[in-house]
Amino acid sequence: MKIIIIGSVASGTSVATKTRRNTERAEITLYDKDTDISYAVCGIPYAIGGEVGDFDELTPRDAQWFKARHNVDVHTSHDVLSINHAAKKVLVKNLLTGETFEDKYDLLVFATGASYQTPEVFQNQAFDNVFQVRNIHSGKIIKSFIDEHQPKTAVVVGAGYIGLEMAEQLKTQGLDVIVLQRSKHPMPHFGWDMSIRIEEEMRKQGIQFRAEETIVEVNGRTRLESAVTSQGNVLEADLYILATGVVPNTSLATSIGVTLGETGAIATDTSLQTNLEGVYAVGDVAESFHVITGKPIYRPMATTANKMGRIAGDAMTGGALRFQGILGTGILRFFDLTIAQTGLTEKEALAEGYEVAVLFNIKPDKPTYMAGKDMVIKAVADKQTHRILGVQIIGPQGVDKRIDIFASTITLGVKAEDLFHMDLAYAPPFSTTKDAVAYTGMALTNALNTAPLMTPQTLLALQDKHTEMTIIDARTAESYAEAHIPGAIHIPLSALRDQSVNLDKDKLTIVYCYKGVAGNAAQNILRHEGFKTVYNLTGVMIIIKKLLSKSRKSLSN
After folding, report:
1. Strand partners, 166
2. What pLDDT sits at residue 556?
3. Pfam families, per this entry (predicted)?
4. Going by fewer Cβ within 10 Å, which terminus of the chain is more open, N or C?
């Protein structure tokens, strides 16, 4: 049996190694037009910034290693030009010699990855100070440019994972950095109520963030001398990084009739086989499906690519492994913040037709006497089944541990009530006695059963409609005086029992504090006093910052 794999990095090499572990009888050949085949793509920004000492640390395995260890024939600098699937032949070009030749296969695997989307204004342009983080080679070129030219200013186009990571690394090297983003906020899939914290970190670190602004005109020949933005601003930076998303490299696959899915990536079954028998697709070129909804999703991640490669290699050699979908889990560090998410966002859950309960839970990763620091956890649950649908977390430390717990529990279909009963490890250097995960379960359980929560978006919508309601700020007088939600009256928790007699029990009532604990206590008091509809406002800190950032009416008297 002859297997040809087109493409390498995480997915292609995983196919090869798993196939070899399953059988010694297969002849395995891998073609890749790049010079490096197995490398840590996600480490490239850190090598550019010098945090990783040498790019060689990101390329631990070469063609010789794969031949000696797994008896896999790896050919770098070889481009597969075309495929005759009826004859099961590929036409390959050696990019070093110019020679072309044919090779035959029994099974074919597409691991052709994805390419950056290049903004239209930069297409068919070649500026020596404009870069995209594509592979090891591109990373080395960026690093060499920085070392040789010592740029002082940089513009990063795009505020997703790579854009933020590159902005961090460039700023750390002393460059003045501007980040442009097409949408209103960085990491736009997070939603403004979480992304606003990323904007705060940008300001704290001295990075300019320009929302809803793109480059529409470029000027220069070999060097980009200036760029005009959609807001009419003229930028004159020494260095530009384009980080505007990726698209799957599907042209070779579609040339032989491979079907694409709804997302534009290659559609496969759970064995990663395409619509053509004996033809597989893995990694960033392939479509995934969501664990919760079962619907197609395209989230190119190294973890998914590795997983797909292993599954395809096992399945094509008679193994039982099958792809079980993804949650789109992701994480990155941005200066003093760790930013992570898994599962459905609130927006996605609503679009899927779920009636959701949304909680903003602010809890430290460990006790304050052990230097614990607050994390903001946004959790989304289904009101009907109480299943956890998605979680986003932003904080300075402890985020990675919690997001992995949530990803595990969501995969297993855990309900809000179950989070409290999980037997998580505790010692003061690592967590609080009731971990933030358990607190999330407690608060969501209350919200789903007896103590409903209201989100900042819902409150703002009610205010815009001039809905009659009583808003009670249960914090201290000092906190209320510093900033409070428009229309809120101040009744500290300690005085609420006595002063509740002066309030209308039939009117919609919303209570809040800073983290939600005193708000929940106030909500319980009013419920027991006979108030008909009482909500605890979740995410108060976020709504106040949002109102301040938008320069709405003064929040203080």
Report:
1. none
2. 34
3. Pyr_redox_2, Pyr_redox_dim, Rhodanese
4. C
Catalytic residue among 42, 302, 424, 525: 42
Domain co-membership, 253 together with 239: no
Dihedral through CA 493, CA 494, CA 496, CA 497, nearest 10?
130
Task: Give the residue carrying structure tokens 């196919």.
Answer: 15
More confident residue, 460 or 184: 184
Specify the 3-state DSSP secondary structure of 111.
coil
Q: Count of domains in the chain?
A: 4
**Residues pairing with 75 in the sheet:** 31
- Identify which of 331, 278, 336, 282 has the alpha carbon closest to the alpha carbon of residue 304: 282
Of 259, 284, 315, the position where a domain reaches its end is 315
What's the pLDDT tens digit per position in 339-362? 999 999 999 999 999 999 999 999
As a whole number of angstroms, the distance between CA 200 and CA 458 comes to 23
Helix, strand, coil share of the chain (percent; to 5): 35, 25, 40
Coil, strand or helix at 75 = strand
Q: How far apart are the first and last CA of the chain?
A: 79
Total residue count of the chain as it appears in this document? 557
* Contact present, 343 and 389 (Cβ < 8 Å): yes
Range of the domain at 487: 453-549
Residue with tokens 């292609």: 12
Cα distance between residue 8 and residue 113, in whole Å: 8
Asked about 513 being catalytic, the answer comes back as no
Whether residues 219 and 153 fall in one domain: yes
Compute the half-sphere exposure of residue 441: CA atoms within 13 Å on the CB side of its CA. 21
**Residue 196 near residue 546 (C-beta atoms within 8 A):** yes
Nearest to 181 by CA among 246, 139, 224, 242: 242
Residue 231 lies in a domain: yes
Please give the backbone phi and psi of residue 156, each rounded to the nearest 5 degrees, phi first.
-110, 120
pLDDT at 549: 52
Token pair 């004859």: residue: 87
